[in-house]
Amino acid sequence: MLEINVAQLLKGPVGTDKTVPISGCIDITGYGKSDVKGEVKLMRTNRSVLVRGTLHTCVQITCARCLESFNSPLELNIEEEYFPLTDVTTGAMLDESEESDDLTIDEHLILDLSEAARQYALLAIPMKPLCRVDCQGIKLN
Hints:
Distance between the termini: 46 Å
Largest sheet: 5 strands, mixed
Order of helices and strands: EHEEEEEEH
């Protein structure tokens, strides 16, 4: 999982930041899990945690010319804002922000990068992927 405990970060003043290495597996395309690795920087804002970083993964996709499956490496440049569901000091539930788009910090103060990484990976997959630049297409005998 790509989960990070942000309790200490939320207790700090606005502008507090920390860099966290990321490593885990997620299901990007629905055809099996892919390893995701990288590093993100978390920064406390006045109402949320801003996440910026670069993640690397590889997905199995089909070549648009020869229709063979191949592994395509992807680089994901993430920048997202996560909103807490509970107050870090009192534990009281906070009003959900309409801007959150389901990117929230849960009641245990855990920030889960899985959904953001999945969405960024889907956007990074080429529209017409090629297994190699000089792919000749389907081979007819």
